[in-house]
Amino acid sequence: MTQTLINLFKTIFLVDLLKGLWVTLKYTPQPAFTFQYPAERRPTAPRFRGVLRLQTEPGTGAQTCIVCDQCAKACPDDLITAYLLEDALPAERTVECDFLGADPYVPIPAADADDYDSALDALSAVDDEINNASDWWYWDGIEPLTFGCLAGGTIAYQATEVDYEVSLDDCAFSDGLSLTGDGVIHGDGSFTLEVETDGGNALSYARDAEGERSATGTLDP
User: Fold this and answer.
1) Three-class DSSP labels, the chain
2) Count of domains in the chain?
3) Which domain holds residue 193?
């Protein structure tokens, strides 16, 4: 009986509605939480690595997944499922999957420029960020793409007939390493970069289609 009267009281005097309005009014005077995306980006967790992506054909860039689910049925998911649910061991001690189940891990850039041992280490980290940015992977390639770098500045992508041009404007993926210059993501998967540091040091970087990396120049002292 008591609970019924309480519910009746709440219904008549709109208690739940007033509680909701109070929450709204409590947050109204607070300043707006707004980022000027894409020039300004919301801070991310230190171990954030973007998003998962599908595998692509090296020659054409076409996605290889057609959602047939055969890879999950064949290897290794069915082996694990059979063991967990049916207590069935694989027919052989070693089973090799004939496909790449996941991309190699791409480490995050160093927090500070002093953590790099050489220009090659620093520019390799820049290369990884430029070529693995989630904005870049989900870009339609039509209109120019510009967004903020992790530690300040901006990076822009522009599609050409065969390559993608990259422009860095005081772009920093690590504190103390702001770079300005241009690069090219080539159709064969290679990448070249010509940049200058805040201190005026010129740096050149290249990664060929086989993944071999080289760099010339020195970082700011």
Assistant:
1) CHHHHHHHHHHHCCHHHHHHHHHHHHHCCCCCCCCCCCCCCCCCCCCCCCCCCCCECCCCCCECCCCCCHHHHHCCHHHHHHHHHHCCCCCCCCCCCCCCCCCCCCCCCCCEHHHCCCHHHHHHHHHHHHHHCHHHHCCCCCCCEEEECCCCCEEEEEECCCCEEEEEEEEECCECCEEEEEEEECCCCCEEEEEEECCCCEEEEEECCCCCEEEECCCCC
2) 2
3) 113-216
* Same-domain pairing of 168 and 95: no
Query: ω into residue 38 within 30 of 0, thus cis?
Result: yes
Q: pTM of the entire structure?
A: 0.57
- Phi-psi group of 192: left, alpha or beta (phi > 0 → left; psi -120 to 50 → alpha; rest → beta): beta
pLDDT one-digit tens code per residue, 43-69: 665 555 555 455 666 666 666 666 665
| Residue whose entry in the numeric block shows the structure tokens 């996605």 | 63
- Same domain membership, residue 164 and residue 72: no
Q: Pick from 212, 213, 110: which is nearest to 204 by CA?
A: 213
Residues 197 and 147 in one domain: yes
**Residue 53 identity:** R
CA distance 201 to 178: 11
Chain-centroid distance, C-alpha 8:
53
Residue 31: alpha-carbon gap to chain centroid: 29
pLDDT, tens digit, for every residue of 106-165?
788 888 988 999 999 999 999 999 998 888 888 888 889 999 998 899 999 998 888 899
